[in-house]
Amino acid sequence: MRKEKADYRLYVREIHDSLADGRVLLAARRPDGGANATAIGWGCPGVIWSRPVFVALVRPSRYTYELIEQFGEFTVNVAPPSLKEAVTYCGTVSGRSEDKLAKCGLTAAPGLSVSAPIIEECIVHLECRVVHTNDLVPDNLARPIADMFYGSGDFHRCFFGEILACRAEANRA
Q1: Does the model's pTM come out above 0.90?
Q2: Do residues 118 and 125 touch, judged by C-beta distance below 8 A?
Q3: What residue ranges define each of the domains in the chain, with the CATH number in brackets?
Q4: For residue range 144-167, what is the model confidence (pLDDT) as tens digits?
């Protein structure tokens, strides 16, 4: 699959639909130079501070959270429907204990603009550098949402990643 530089705005709807469909992997660099990825269903591309950004929500209990905190970079990778099972697996097993990508037959490849890897088999990639973080404030969250998603109290951190590069399969847009 040949990847080409692309304008992320051409893929906003696809990213949105893929988040809702459970086909997005958030990837980060490991200290040993390897890669870790986890499934995400919440996040959004947009413009903040006159910059293109992707806001990714990650729980502090996740290994990916530690890696983003350490290196300040991540990639957003949209998987084709054929990889939905692999994405689901990556969201249910911790990268602290196993190489999820190898187990699923997924390949980490170098980013163009960040040290965080892209997932080669995915069809759209956003490369992001963190420009801001913000923790969800439990008292400011609507009670029904807090009750439904945060029974354990593991509230997300929002990572605002400036989109430095976008790549996509040739002829996608």
Answers
A1: yes
A2: yes
A3: 3-169 (2.30.110.10)
A4: 999 999 999 999 999 999 999 999
